[in-house]
From TrEMBL:
Keywords: Amino-acid biosynthesis, Arginine biosynthesis, Transferase. This is N-succinylornithine carbamoyltransferase. It catalyses: N(2)-succinyl-L-ornithine + carbamoyl phosphate = N(2)-succinyl-L-citrulline + phosphate + H(+). Belongs to the aspartate/ornithine carbamoyltransferase superfamily. SOTCase family. The keyword rRNA-binding does not apply. It is an enzyme of class 2 (transferase). Its EC number is 2.1.3.11. The lineage of its organism: Bacteria, Pseudomonadati, Bacteroidota, Cytophagia, Cytophagales. It comes from Sandaracinomonas limnophila.
């Protein structure tokens, strides 16, 4: 594996999950592997988990870590080719990424979608420009359309907590006050469709994910029906893909409540975090024994470490 930007970069999914679980048992077993190697983590957007867990994962592999909030700390970057740069952007990604590549052996990039122009966002221009110009492996720290480190974490967490060989996993849309990216649900669906799980997506009409992500998942528009017999409830808000970037629904019937959790097979509650309490999920659920959101976030370290180890071995 060279770049890590989607599930398609992973040759053997269950081997990657097992590597994460193995690293969780012996975090320091490969301290020599990344010695004298540097990872640069570039953030165009806010982060708590991705920033700290990836930094910790790199350190446990012996790597040196540099973190930069692009835009806030460095120059505004122009991403498009051939433009006359007489606006507010001082540097082109052609130079910026190439220079960063001089300092780093692996580069991580977080860049959310603008949620205005669907074609632009789904072209993944920022990620692709870094792949083109850095000359070093690129790890997605959540791009315009995907969040693969989160999805690998989610699969590791499901593997740890499942009680049956093929658990029923439900991705349920939930309300939110802001228009959010489709990255987490796109990616989660893409990974679940490749895993050995019984996968359902529940969302209001108008919230269909792009078909390349939802694939053959079972779809329901009923906020309750999918909960029946579920082993894992994975909640996430996203804005519409069809009516791009819009909020079409704010019906609180889509919030994850204790009443709905009671319909499940004693399901575990998952969310990538950050989460809006009592908008996306009731306190009574996130504070219950069935909530594994903290363990899930903890597993971000092992997902990142599995990915970085695999990339380091290919250098
Ligand atoms: N990295 C995890 C999720 C990041 C982002 N959430 C957010 O922006 C939440 C913002 C808020 O609640 O104000 C998303 O949905 O893709
Ligand atoms: N889940 C996740 O990616 O969290 P951060 O946005 O805080 O990194």
């Amino acid at each position: 594996m060279y770049n890590f930007t989607s599930v398609n970069d992973v040759q053997d999914l269950s081997a990657m999950v097992n590597l994460g679980l193995q690293l969780k048992k012996s975090p320091n077993a490969f301290r020599e592997l990344g010695k004298y190697k540097t990872i640069g983590l570039l953030f165009f957007n806010s982060s708590l988990r991705t920033r700290l867990s990836t930094q910790k994962a790199a350190q446990q592999l012996g790597m040196d870590v540099m973190v930069m909030n692009v835009g806030a700390d460095s120059w505004q970057l122009e991403m498009t080719e051939g433009v006359i740069m007489n606006g507010d952007k001082a540097e082109h990604v052609a130079e910026a990424a190439a220079v960063i590549g001089q300092y780093c052996d692996i580069v991580g990039v977080r860049s959310f979608p603008g949620l205005v122009d669907r074609n632009y966002d789904y072209s993944e221009q920022v990620l692709n420009q870094f792949i083109k110009y850095t000359g070093k492996p690129i790890v997605s720290l959540e791009s315009a359309t995907r969040h693969p480190l989160q999805s690998l974490t989610d699969l590791i967490t499901i593997e740890e907590h499942k009680k049956t060989a093929r658990p029923k996993v439900v991705l349920t849309w939930a309300p939110h006050v802001k228009a959010l990216p489709q990255c987490v649900p796109n990616s989660f669906a893409e990974w679940m469709n490749r895993a050995d799980v019984d996968f359902t997506i529940a969302h209001p009409e108008g919230y269909e994910l792009a078909p390349e992500f939802s694939g053959n998942a079972r779809i329901t528009h009923d906020p309750k029906a999918a909960f029946i017999g579920a082993d894992f409830i994975y909640a996430k808000n996203w804005s519409s893909y069809k009516d791009y970037g819009k909020i079409l629904n704010s019906d609180p019937a889509w919030m994850v409540t204790k009443e709905k959790m009671d319909l499940t097979n004693n399901a575990k509650f998952m969310h990538c975090l950050p989460v809006r309490r009592n908008v996306v999920v009731e306190d009574a659920v996130i504070d219950s024994e069935n909530s594994i959101v903290i363990q899930q976030a903890g597993n971000r370290v092992w997902a990142a470490q599995a990915v970085l180890k695999t990339i380091l071995e290919s250098l």
